[in-house]
Amino acid sequence: MKLTEWVECRLARLAPPWMIGEIRISPGYLLTHRADAPEDPGLQLLSDWESLLELARFDAAGRFRPLRGAPGLRKGWRRGPLSIDELVADLQLLYPGAVAVWAAWEEERLVSTPFSETAGRQTGLYEGTRRLPADDLSLLVEEICTRGCLRRPLWYSFERPSGDRGEIPLLCPEVCHYFLHKARSRAAARKAA
Ligand code: SF4
Questions:
Q1: In Å, how far are 82, 132, 168, 172, 184 from 66, measured between CA atoms?
Q2: Given the CA of residue 175, which atom of ligand 1 is nearest to it?
Q3: Where does the DR2241 4Fe-4S iron-sulfur cluster binding domain start and stop, copy by copy (predicted)?
Q4: 96 and 186, same structural domain?
Q5: Ligand 1 atom 6: residue of nearest CA
Q6: Are residues 91 and 176 in the same domain?
Q7: How many domains does the chain have?
C-alpha cells in the first residue's frame, strides 16, 4: 500500500480534527496552526508551496528555524482543502519523515538507532561525538529534544506515545543532524577544557 493510501485509511479511523505537532488537520484536509480556529475568516490563505516552505523555515520574527520539529510555527494562516497527496507532501515539508515513521510505528516495524551506534558511524569533525560522556548526552537530550523539539527521541528513551484520539505521534527514531552538531560542539568543548 502506498503511504498516501495508508494515511487516508488511518485518518478515516480516527475522529477529526487530527493533530500533528503544532498543526491541526480539519476534515477536507484543511491545515491551520493548532492554536487557531479553522473557521476564523482572518486567517491568511497559503495557496502555494513556497509560502508553506517559508512558514516552515522562518518563525514569526523572521528567524531561521534550524529544527523543523521545534515549537514556534507562526500562527494566523490556513492551507487547503488539500488532496491526500498534497496533505502528505505538506506534512513532509513541515515535519520531514514524520508520516513514514508514524506508519512504521503503527505497523510495528519501526527500528530506533541508539546514539552510540549513530555516533560510532561518525568520522572527521563529528568523530568526537563518540566520546561524549553519558551525563552530557543526558543534558543535551533535556535541552534540545525535551525542551526544544516536539518529537519524541525513541533513540534515547523508548516511551510509547499516549495515543490520544486524533493525535498523530511525532517520533524520532534516530538522532538528527542538528543534535549531532550540538553534540560535536559539546564534545569539542570537553576536549579543550
Ligand atoms: S534528535 Fe532530538 S532534536 Fe533532533 S529531531 Fe530527534 S527529538 Fe528532535
A1: 27, 22, 22, 16, 16
A2: 1
A3: 108-184
A4: no
A5: 172
A6: no
A7: 2
Residue 168 has, within 13 A of its CA and on its CB side, a CA count of 29
Domain containing 177: what range? 115-192
- With cut-offs at 50, 70 and 90, classify the pLDDT of residue 193: confident
* Residues 94-139: tens digit of each pLDDT: 999 999 999 999 999 999 999 999 999 999 988 989 989 999 999 9
Q: Which atom of ligand 1 is closest in space to residue 149's alpha carbon?
A: 8
Nearest Cα residue to atom 3 of ligand 1: 145
Residue nearest to atom 1 of ligand 1 (CA): 175
Kindly report whether the peptide bond that precedes residue 71 is cis, defined as omega within 30 degrees of 0. Answer: no
Residue ranges lining ligand 1, Cβ < 6 Å: 67, 69, 144-145, 149, 151, 153, 172, 175-176, 178-179
CATH number at residue 18: 3.30.1360.190
Report yes or no: 48 and 86 within 8 Å, Cβ to Cβ. Answer: no
Together in a domain, 12 and 101: yes
Q: Hunting for cell 525535551 — which residue is that?
A: 146
Nearest CA to ligand 1 atom 5: 176
> pLDDT class for 164, splitting at 50, 70, 90?
low
